[in-house]
Write a structure and sequence with these properties.
Blueprint: H1 24-32, E1 38-43, H2 46-60, E2 67-68, H3 73-78, H4 81-95, E3 99-104, H5 106-110, H6 115-121, E4 129-133, H7 142-157, E5 168-171, H8 177-189, E6 194-196, H9 222-226, E7 233-237, H10 243-253, E8 257-260, H11 265-280, H12 286-306, E9 310-315, H13 317-329, E10 333-339, H14 344-357, E11 363-365, H15 370-379, E12 384-387, H16 392-398, E13 402-404, H17 422-444
Helix pairs in contact: 1-2, 1-7, 7-10, 11-13, 11-17, 12-17, 13-14
The structure holds iron/sulfur cluster.
Iron/sulfur cluster binds next to helix 2.
């Protein structure tokens, strides 16, 4: 498997092999599923929509609903206006959502369908809504699609009544439902009234009740999205994914925002807690401090197995940067840090982390791919690989311990239900990382070094 990857590295610009990203509409669909009673709609061919749904369903192990404009040859040549008119009429009649969130695809973007004008002309039933975002997949990645759909909802729906609602808007970035629950728990501990948008908890981790719910109980409500303009402040988590959405909220409605990394590990969770503390003006509660102390204690206890270990990290930019911060806190060396999303800010931020912790000889690259990562590993290997399920072939080919984190995780269960954010998520990650390294030590050590107590 992957035996033919050459170790000789050429600087490729025009070709990606085994890309470390997927297409914009996947992100748009994921964002739309974080809105209550929303039907995401793919304006393109059925094949695209099937793929987008499949990748999300396989990661979350839950149905990811979406409708399609079902382009055929006619729409591809003459435009998809009539398909969208028929689709929205059918969707409201059959599936009764409160809102349809339309995203474009490569095909509808290439032929130049003007979604803004199409939507203005739609006959939308009273009390129902249609919003859209442009998500051409030949640019950016699913991360960009997520941000664009978030901004699509904001552009169509947010308002300012002039009466501040006392709430803090939290843009949580691309995280799992388990992470959203942990972030909400921290906000509740800090006694900050927050509106999380989008919020897939309850939707993509719906409990088994024996009855299928097309719209599981969860998601940010339309009223809450409208109220974002009345927020007193905003916290945007994920410096790559959420910079533009946060700026939009500030420009449109003068909501001041704090842009932070995803709160993974000690320092980045501290930053989130401090941002909440500025809103609440309360002392950090003792139980949250105790959680932090337990993570620090675990970092110290496991240090003898993590210190100096070389690790390769890949995946979406914000989670990779946050995981890089965590492994640096654990004394590890993030030898290779890549994302497939072409955002140079990623490279600068990763290099700033290397400098902050004095980690030398580390490489960071945006717009990279897993082929390139494999080539680097073949030249100089690592002790651990951290990333999505797409790293498992490299882990097998090079016999490297592998910790799954980020998106997508297609070959394991439970990952989306448990957090990696917050102090609790940090404890979970350090447990996974140290267990992977210690399992490898047990497998490879000499018999006289094989100990029950480690
Ligand atoms: S054609 Fe474009 S939108 Fe459709 S699945 Fe492929 S990359 Fe995504």
């Amino acid at each position: 498997m992957l035996d033919l990857t050459p170790s000789e590295h050429l600087d490729r610009r025009a070709l990606r092999i085994n890309p470390c990203k997927t297409c914009q509409p996947v992100g748009a669909l994921f964002a739309a599923l974080g809105v209550e009673r929303c039907m995401p709609h793919s304006h393109g061919s059925q094949g695209c929509c099937s793929y987008h749904r499949t990748v999300l369903s396989r990661h979350f192990k839950e149905p990811a609903i979406a409708a399609s404009s079902s382009f055929t040859e006619g729409a591809s040549v003459f435009g998809g206006r009539s398909n969208l008119v028929a689709a929205t009429r059918n969707i409201f009649a059959i599936y009764d959502p409160d809102i349809i969130a339309v995203h474009t695809t490569c095909l509808s973007e290439t032929i130049g369908d003007d979604l803004g004008s199409y939507i203005m002309d739609l006959e939308v039933p009273p009390g129902k809504l249609v919003v859209h975002a442009n998500t051409p997949s030949y640019a950016g990645s699913h991360i960009v699609g997520y941000a664009r759909m978030t901004m699509g909802f904001m552009s169509y729906l947010t308002q300012k009544t002039g009466v501040p609602n006392g709430r803090c808007a939290v843009l949580p970035g691309w995280v799992n439902p388990g992470d959203l629950r942990e972030l909400k728990q921290i906000a509740a501990q800090m006694e900050v009234p927050c509106t999380f948008f989008p919020d897939q908890s309850g939707v993509l981790d719906a409990p088994m009740t024996g009855t299928y719910e097309l719209y599981p109980k969860g998601g940010t409500t339309i009223a809450e999205i409208r109220g974002l303009g009345d927020s007193e402040s905003a916290i945007a988590l994920g410096e790559i994914i959420n910079e533009e959405p946060a700026e939009l909220l500030e420009k449109k409605w003068k909501v001041p925002y704090t842009l932070l990394p995803l709160p993974v590990g000690v320092a980045y969770t501290d930053a989130f807690v401090m941002a909440l503390q500025r809103h609440s003006k309360l002392e950090v509660p003792a139980d949250l401090e105790a959680q932090r102390g337990r993570l620090v204690d675990l970092l110290l206890d496991s240090h003898q197995y993590t210190y100096g270990k070389r690790v390769a990290l890949f995946g979406d930019p914000d989670i990779v940067l946050a995981l890089t911060s965590l492994v640096l806190e654990a004394g590890m060396v993030p030898a290779y840090v890549i994302t497939g999303t072409p955002k140079e800010t990623f490279t600068r931020k990763a290099e700033a982390l290397f400098a902050q912790y004095g980690a030398e000889g580390c490489i960071a690259r945006a717009g990279s791919d897993l082929f390139e990562l494999h080539q680097w590993i073949k030249r100089e290997s690592v002790d651990l690989l951290i990333g999505s399920s797409y790293g498992k072939q490299i882990a097998r080919a090079e016999d490297i311990p592998f910790v799954r984190a980020g998106f997508p995780v297609l070959d394991r269960y439970g990952h989306s239900l448990l957090p990696v954010v917050g102090y609790t998520g940090g404890i979970r990650l350090i447990e996974k990382i140290s267990n992977a390294l210690m399992d490898r030590f047990d497998r490879d050590c000499a018999e006289e070094d094989f100990e029950v107590v480690m």
